[in-house]
Amino acid sequence: MAGRMLKFIRGKGQQPSAERQKLQNELFAFRKTVQHGFPHRASALAWDPLLRLCALGTATGALKVYGRPGVELYGQHTNPDSAVTHIQFIPGSGQLISLCDDNSLHLWEINEKSLVELKTHVFEGKNKKISALCVESSGKNLLLGTEGGNIYTLDCNTFTINEDVIYQDVVMQNCPEDFKVNPGAVEAVCEHPKVPSRILIGYNRGLVVLWDRATATPTHTIVCNQQLESLCWNDEGEHFTSSHNDGSYVTWEVASTASDRPLKEPVTPYGPYPCKSITKILNRTSVDGEEVTIYAGGMPRSPYSDKFTVTVQQGEKHVAFDFTSRVIDFFTTTPVPPDGVPLQEVRPATPAQIQVQTVNQVAAALVVLVEEELVVIDLCDDKWRPLRLPYLVSVHACAVTTATLVDNVADNVYDNIVAAGNKQTENVYSESPWPISGGIVEGCEPAERQVLLTGHEDGSVRFWDVTGVVMTPLYKYTTATLFSGEEIGENNDSQNDEEEWPPFRRIGTFDPYSDDPRLAVKRVLLCPLSGMLTIGGAAGHIVIASLKTSPSTAEVKSIPVNIVSDRDGFVWKGHDQLTLRSGALTFPAGYQASAVGQLSPPAAVTALAAQWEWGVVCAGTAHGLALLDALRVAPVAHKCTLNPHDHSGAGDTPISRRKSFKKSLRESFRRLRKGRSQRRQTTTSASPTSPTQPAKRVAEKISETDAEVKPIERAVEARPADDGFGSMVRCLYFARTFLINTQTTTPTLWAGTNNGTVYAFTIHVPNTNKRKEDPVTCQLAKEIQLKHRAPVIGITVLDGAAVPLPDPLEVERGVSPLPESGAHRVVITSEEQFKVFTLPALKPHNKYKLTAHEGARVRRTAFAWFECGASGAERHREWCLLCLTNLGDCLVLSPDLRRQLNAAAVRKEDINGISSLCFSKRGEALYLHSSSELQRITLSATKVTIAQCHVLLSPWAVTLRGASDDAPLTNGEHREEPSVAEAAHDLTAASGDITVDSVRDHAAEASELNINLQNSQVNTSSMVVKTTTRTNVNENSVDGVTTTTTTTTTTNNSITENILEHSREEGVITRIETGTVTVPAGTDPKLILEMFDRQRAPLAVPVPPAES
Predict the structure, then answer these.
(1) Do residues 518 and 575 make contact, with C-beta atoms less than 8 angstroms apart?
(2) Residue 697: per-residue pLDDT
(3) Low complexity: which segments have biased composition (predicted)?
(4) What is the DSSP letter of 429?
(5) What is the SS3 assignment for 926-967?
(6) 760 and 783 in contact (C-beta within 8 Å)?
(7) pLDDT at 954
(8) N or C: which terminus of the chain has fewer CB atoms within 10 Å of its end residue's CB?
């Protein structure tokens, strides 16, 4: 027992020193940083023509603002279940207003580097659902059209409803009798381009009124025959166009006296048969001065009801852009100015000036948001080609099946991949500048290239540059062209066979359908130094491809391997293998396949490894593993991992439910009986009449002492040896290490299976001059069986300095130094524990029981290095083991298995996110936090990828802004979350921070507040002031509007930071200004409330230097 006590004190009892704790804080820190890809369930779109910023809202309450590549700002509504339905910028001010489907309005501000929610207003009342929004050109008010027919005015500064209401009854005084009953909801509200006091109001049933707000009278009343969908001003406000639900649009004249006749006859572009509604229409002017009409929908119902289109017409040119998902919204942009964003010295006074000749503005580009992607069409291009997306790219254009993060890609490899990608998209995209060009990017790009590889369901592998904030597509490699068969399409473009009318043109990249599920990529590897690509597929095929700079024609060689050749009774019941095309194949520049390995049975590849110093590739399936010689294009060896008595064919069909159910029932009853017998023994030992009571008491004392010494462990049931999937190979690893003796290192292959077995093979690789003549040989050297038979997740060999062995070619290319001399150790990670063995003896050295101590299971592991300190030779570097658990937690363990960091990274309910996470060598990770978007996280305190950007505002925009005394919360900045008591989630409006200085300026007795803020002994308290404003509209009331404001004050005894709302689902941290104040104890709350209601001082914004 004394030995166990000593071991416990030596191993677990030591706490890190103060110096080590300081170093840990400098090395390790968890933070969610940026998001890549396309927002999940996009639902709203907006454009600021002055700042050239674009905003997107989602059905999960996320709000994202984008400018030029690298300018990204994130926000999250407090209610993630409330979808964003509309977004409106207050042009040029850096403020925007969002409307959610719970009828709440939210005011957001771009606070130089962050997106901050300032105020919230909940619009309540019967039939008061907001159906249309319009921001005044002055930026002071927001017009709200409702389903009840009234139009209300929201003050953008106070964010409250004022008394200026346009009632439906007043508007309809000059209307026909049949419309006075119920004209329907307000569908559209548009300000006159030249006279802001006039607004165009469109009602659902077809009534359109030009209303003069100055005189409170209608100037024109127009009745349409069809239900109204949208309105759009033309020219200089002399005409407007209405679109309708029968697929038609009409142009009306309002320049002359009151008229109710259209300027032109109704146009049904895709008639005369019944058509779908035109949901939105825009009239613009091309760069050549021609009229451009853009509208969504209008397709004939019968043949094309399933089409999602946006049509562009310019003179004789007519194209119906055909998307693969529903169109949400679209807008046009003017030509990009030379510097990206021109500063407006004077605030534009009319909509025409704001839009730069608004309705007659030059349309240089068309930005279309559909459910699954963003498409930008260059209207200055003769062919109306799309622009290449620098961000918001659809990662899920085809379903993602695997992902790998590759660090330190060699410059020549990266350049060749980029060049091949450019050739792929030659003449596909326009080369015009990106129109969303707002904001300013700070800092410079890192020198080290980081590439993400995603494998997809259609057999393609996509390469993405994820070095910085922006995820840029580089190249796409397709394996489907290597195979032939009835199920695999020949990639013929079906649009050539379509009719000439309507003039469809397929656009966008989103195409979620796959011809053959066997093509799906299950594993993918890229050698960052040689550029060699290895792909493992769902049909047991391994594609080996090399990067070439010129096209070539060659025959792809096949390497067949029968893994179960020594199992006579084995029967495969799954799918057939893919058929490799015979003869010579022509490949373009880029990746060209040199060989395809085919495993039999053709089960999906579950593990893949490649060693390009030796020229070998190894793949594992549910039946075993096969080692291939990629240079000689020949099989080397294979190992069947199936149980000798198992002929069921693991991997072809799901496990027998009947068998597993009977087995689990039997084991449950055994555990139940065992538990009852143990309880019965305990009861007997505690009986006062027991003759062996003294002996039992001594035993109890000993067991209590042991319990104090030994950490509490959960009971982990041993797994059955005959598990149906126990033969599955889970991980493969190549290493040159001491496996035979302690004198010389040997090339080795390590393989771990699902039932806790580790196989160690020695490999003989011929010398370089005889490499292609002599065969590579391989034989089994050692075998380890883990006690609990838990699946083996990862295997890594550490050198004498506890650093992972260099990757292939790293020493040869000078990227990494030679491994440190000394004894090697191997770290074997199972689902339940980490265990270190010495080499070559394979004796247990130490272990960390994750499942027994914490109840979690390992899902993903990797080694990464962390560094801190000053630049140069003094920087401190450590290699650590990263681990992701099934609960979504990320752990950082030192090589001696001491825990350095534990962070809740992924929601435990997010199974796809946990299964898709991949680590980098710098302590970062990427995972799919939705089907279309990647979340980036970091576990390093020094390697942080965040948007270093800001938005430069014009001087006049200061008057519309308020001051904030605290530094803004930068995108992705991680701070401590407040407790529930400190940050209630029901707050809806706020009005800025109050500091001790501002209280001092307005206090009656300034001497009481004259304190030294640097003195930590000052007794302070924290007050959280929350204002909730709700507006109830009463139809029977003369005033029509009743505003109720409730202000609550909460006092805490500790100093509190600004309240943060942290959404784990979206990985967004948003600061909400809630009037948190830290003041000396005893300050009168009335003083705080008085300060809370005061107008905030203007915000100091950067003003560009005057030109000399």
Answers:
(1) yes
(2) 40
(3) 680-695
(4) S
(5) EEECCCCEEEEEEEECCCCCCCCEECCCCHHHHHHCCCCCCC
(6) yes
(7) 80
(8) C
The closest alpha carbon to 53, from 43, 65, 62, 63, belongs to 65
- Per-residue pLDDT of 378-412, as tens digits, reads 999 999 999 999 999 999 889 999 999 999 999 99
Whose tokens are 């490899």? That residue is 413
What is d(CA 362, CA 357) in angstroms, rounded to the nearest whole number? 8
State what percent of residues in the chain have pLDDT above 70: 73
Structure-token pair, residue 824: 């090697």
Q: Among residues 993, 969, 1002, which one has the least CA distance to residue 1056?
A: 993
Q: How many other CB atoms sit within 10 Å of the CB of residue 945?
A: 21
* Residue 75 neighbours by CB distance under 10 Å: 30
Q: State whether residue 617 is helix, strand or coil.
A: strand
∠ at Cα 636 (632, 641), nearest 5°?
150
Taking the C-alpha atoms of residue 299 and residue 240, their distance in angstroms, rounded to an integer, is 22
Count the helix, strand and coil residues of the chain and give each as a percent rounded to the nearest 5: 15, 40, 45
Query: In this structure, are strands 557-562 and 590-600 parallel, antiparallel, or unpaired?
Result: parallel
SS3 call for 1049: strand
The CA distance from 331 to 48, in Å, is 10
Residue 82 and residue 106 in contact, taking contact as beta carbons nearer than 8 Å: no
Q: Which of 918, 886, 922, 884 is nearest to 901 (CA)?
A: 884
Query: How far apart are the C-alpha atoms of 1070 and 77, rounded to whole Å?
Result: 9
Q: How many CA atoms lie within 13 A of 1005 on its CB side?
A: 6
Tell me how crowded residue 1076 is: count the other CB atoms within 10 A of its CB: 25
DSSP state of 305: T
pLDDT digits (tens, 9 = 90+) for 587-602: 999 999 999 999 999 9
Over residues 215-229, the mean pLDDT reads 89
* Residue 139 φ/ψ, nearest 5 degrees: 80, 5
Only one residue has tokens 């839009």, namely 355
**Which amino acid, residue 234?**
N
Angle between the N-to-C axes of helices 2-11 and 693-709, in degrees from 0 to 180, rounded to the nearest 10 = 20
Using the predicted structure, report yes or no on whether residue 1020 has a pLDDT greater than 60.
no
Determine the Cα–Cα distance for residues 684 and 114; give it in Å rounded to an integer.
68
How many angstroms from the chain centroid is the CA of residue 235?
41
How many helices (H) and strands (E) the chain has is answered by 13, 66
Residue where the block lists tokens 């965040």: 946
Residue-wise pLDDT for 741-772, tens only, equals 989 999 999 999 999 999 999 999 998 888 88
Q: Could you count the other beta carbons within 10 Å of the beta carbon of residue 672? A: 10
Q: What is the mean pLDDT of the chain?
A: 80
Task: Say how many CA atoms lie within 13 Å of 863 toward its Cβ.
Answer: 21
Tokens 């495969």 map to which residue?
572
- The DSSP output letter for 573 is -
Residues in contact with 729: Cβ distance below 8 Å, sequence separation at least 6, in sequence order: 606, 607, 620, 621, 622, 624, 625, 641, 751, 752, 753, 754
Nearest to 641 by CA among 655, 658, 620, 660: 620
Rounded Cα distance between 909 and 911, Å, is 6
